[in-house]
Each structure stands twice: as C-alpha cells, then as structure tokens.
Amino acid sequence: MTEVLRQHAEQLYAEELAELARRDERPRPPNWKLSPWAVVTYLLGGRLDNGFEISPKYIGERRLMEIAVATLATDRALLLYGVPGTAKSWVSEHLAAAIAGDSTLLIQGTAGTSEEAMRYGWNYARLLAEGPSPAALVESPLMRGMREGRLVRLEELTRVPADVQDTLITVLSEKTLPVPELNIEVQAAKGFNLIATANNRDKGVNELSSALKRRFNTVVLPLPDSLESEVEIVQQRVASLTRTLELPAEPPALEQIRRVVTVFRELRSGATADGKTRLKSPTGTLSTAEAISVVGHGLALSAHFGDGSLTAADLAAGLLGAVIKDPVQDKVVWQEYLETVVKERDGWNDVYRACREIS
Ligand SMILES: Nc1ncnc2c1ncn2[C@@H]1O[C@H](COP(=O)(O)OP(=O)(O)OP(=O)(O)O)[C@@H](O)[C@H]1O
Ligand SMILES: [Mg+2]
After folding, report:
1. CB < 8 Å & 24+ apart, contacts of 269-277
2. Cα–Cα dist 61/48, whole Å
3. Which residues contact 269 (CB under 8 A, 6 or more apart)?
4. Ligand 2 centroid vs 340 CA: distance in angstroms?
C-alpha cells in the first residue's frame, strides 16, 4: 500500500479520538462522536484519567475553543476569523475530525466558487439521457453534510462572490436545501453545522452581508501573544513535520527556533523585543505558519546538505524568502533590520554573517 503524503486529522489522531470516545461519559449533542468537553480536550491536549496522553493541537486560550465548540452545538454556524496563519483551517479540520469523525466535507471558497459547488450540480450525461432524477444529481459537500447530519467546512468564505454566499442564508436559517428541479428538499439532519474560515487580509474582497453575518458566531483567532507560545507552536509543528517527512535531522535547537520567531515578531510588530528601536514592517504577513516553513526548510537543508544540525546558514535563505515578498520595498526593510538590529545583537553574529552572504 502506498502511503499518503498527508493524512486527515481523523486518521492521524485516530488513536486519541478512539480513546477519548471510550472514556467520555458526558452528554453528546445529537450525532456528535464526542461530548463538547472531550472535543476541547482533543484540541488543547491533556491527560485522561487512565494516564492516556492527548497531544495539544491548538496552542492558545482554552476559552476560545470552548466558545467555538459550544457554537457548533447550537443552531448557529461558526466563523473562524483572523490574520493569515493563525490556525483557522487547522482548527476547523480538527473540530470536524473530533465532532463528526470526518473532516473531508470541504468546500474551498474562491472567486470562482459557483452555486453548484455550494448546493448541487448535475451529471450531464445522465441528465440528458434520463432527465432530472435523484440519480443525476451531484451533491455538494454541503448537501451531503445536511443529509447525513455532519459538519461541513467552508474555507475562505469571503473570497466567495456575494451572490453565491447568499445561498447559505436559507441553509443556515431554514436548515433546508431545496431542489426545485425535482420538487424535493433536503432537510438537514441533527448534527449538521458549518465551520467557515476567513482571513482579514481579504477583507473587502467580498464582505459578508449582514444577513449572513447574523447566522454566524465569529471567533477571532489571535496571533500568539508571547514569544514563548509562538516558539512552542513552531517547535511542535516542526517536530511532527520532520516525522511525517522522515527527515534524518536532529531536532532543532530551541535557540534557533527562538531566533526565527524573534525576527518574525520584531518585524511584524515594527519594534525590537526590548521596545527600544522602531522598525519598518515588511509587506508580507510573517505568520507563525511561515515561521514553521522557514524552520522546516532549514532542517531539510541541514539534513541533506549539512551535518544534520540546524545552523544559521540553513535558516538564512528561508528567512530572506519569508521577509522579502516585494523585491524593492522589503529589501530595504530587511537591510535596515540586518544592519541595525541583527549585527549589534549579542550572539547573533552567525545569523548576521549567513544573511549577509546571501543577500
Ligand atoms: N495557535 C496555534 N496553535 C497550533 N498551531 C498553530 C497555531 N497558530 C498557527 N499554527 C500552525 O500554523 C499552521 C498554519 O495554520 P493554518 O493553515 O490553519 O492557517 P490559517 O489561519 O488557515 O491561514 P490562512 O488565512 O492563510 O488560510 C498550521 O500548521 C498550524 O499548526
Ligand atoms: Mg486557511
């Protein structure tokens, strides 16, 4: 059997989910695989009574996850909102995995998302041969989720054209999806709900109508509030990444991760960590997700072309790529940061040299 490159959350964490389901004695909403308490435990990690260890998936405030999970137990849909790379898609996948045991009912929102993608389409060969019939109908993930009472995920909701977004209004308020061609409707079974994600960089692309906004409970996922928590996120994700990619590298020294995260946080916030020097911010977002890639890329370099231990030289190329998104503007920002901050910082000599060599 060939191994897949990326497993769904419910496959990757099948053991944890099964153990949680076995131990979970709290009430479960209709058609939920776990109780809300167990879902939050799955997301944030913890130790069960029998000593079984649940790994943390989301690192951040517990209350936010409680609000998200509680929303899904009501008749309102959940909108995860925030800047890029704040784990919106990640949380949405894990929520669906834990609650419905399946994270694959997914609609990717784009400027080209059509009404058919949201509601249903037709198998045209059959439609022409037999006319409209249930067999010629091609269900969207949304319709299937309604029929089976499961969670549906909608990525990048604000990229979807406004008129297509509005098809959701009936679904979310009446919990039904009519098919006029067949004179039928699909009524949502208990357990159905929707998790949408949107990022604020796309704000204004296709703002949510207020009618639709009212049908969502919005949970804003913040950037990690401290250096320590961001370092923890990067460390944890990189560790699992190297496991799946089977990189023959040593786990990166915490010190290297701390440096990458420090650079990201300083440039993002426009000031050095000690607050003494003001900096210009580059045009890119410098999200936690990108910090994870920079460290992951550095590890690949060190595993295949170095001695397996992550050095500043392995990180430099990735750092540069993450910071310089606009070849003119960002280059100036980066040079200034390099010369005024990195060069002067104790113990960062190797970073300075490595970055100078390639810029
Ligand atoms: N607070 C966090 N806890 C755990 N992992 C995090 C956290 N913040 C970011 N990550 C990691 O960042 C990566 C990217 O997250 P994800 O793709 O979900 O971002 P997103 O918010 O959907 O971004 P976009 O708006 O670009 O779609 C994931 O691998 C996730 O593990
Ligand atoms: Mg996303």
Report:
1. 272/341, 273/227, 277/340, 277/341
2. 20
3. 281
4. 34
Superfamily name and number for 9-220: P-loop containing nucleotide triphosphate hydrolases (3.40.50.300)
Q: Would you say 58 and 43 are in contact if contact means Cβ atoms under 8 Å apart?
A: yes
Quick check: 1 pLDDT over 70? no
Average pLDDT, the chain: 93
Q: How many CA atoms lie within 13 A of 152 on its CB side?
A: 29
How far is the C-alpha of 342 from the C-alpha of 156, rounded, in Å? 36
Closest residue by Cα to atom 6, ligand 1, is 87
Which of 13-17, 51-55, 261-265, 302-306 bottoms out in mean pLDDT, i.e. has the lowest?
302-306
User: Using a 6 Å cutoff on CB, does residue 223 contact ligand 1?
Assistant: no
CA distance 216 to 194: 9
Is 120 close to ligand 1, i.e. is its CB under 6 Å away?
no
The predicted pLDDT at position 203 comes to 62
Radius of gyration for the alpha carbons in the chain, expressed in angstroms and rounded: 23
Closest CA to 200 of 333, 330, 58, 88: 88
Q: Please, which residues have CB within 8 angstroms of residue 82's CB and are 6 or more apart in sequence? A: 88, 199, 200, 220, 221, 222, 223
Instruction: Answer yes or no: pTM beyond 0.85.
Output: yes
- DSSP single-letter state for residue 136: G
Strands 193-199 and 151-155: parallel
**What letter represents residue 137's amino acid?**
L
Q: Is the CB of 233 under 6 A from ligand 1?
A: yes
Quickly tell me which residue has 């929102």 as its tokens.
109
Q: Report the separation in Å between the CA atom of 57 and the middle of ligand 1, taken as the mean of its atom positions.
A: 10
